[in-house]
Design a protein that fits this description.
single chain, 68 residues, alpha+beta, globular
């Protein structure tokens, strides 16, 4: 299992995160979808950004990034 963090962001600042234990990126993204709220969220594993989720009130799909 790997540890991921789902950071919730509003007005350009992170204000909360949820810790996720997952076997891989796919499982972490699936679990993050269930935890995300209204604001924009970013899923990270350590220093590696795994996914960016736009605010639910905005249009668009999940964007995935391989690394920074």
């Amino acid at each position: 299992m790997a540890v991921y963090k789902l950071y919730h962001r509003t007005n350009g600042s992170f204000f909360h995160f949820d810790e996720i234990d997952a076997a891989d990126d796919s499982e972490a993204r699936r679990l993050a979808q269930a935890l995300r709220g209204e604001p924009e969220c970013e899923l990270w594993q350590g220093r590696r950004r795994v996914a960016v989720y736009p605010a639910l009130s905005g249009a668009g799909e999940e964007r995935r990034t391989s690394s920074l």
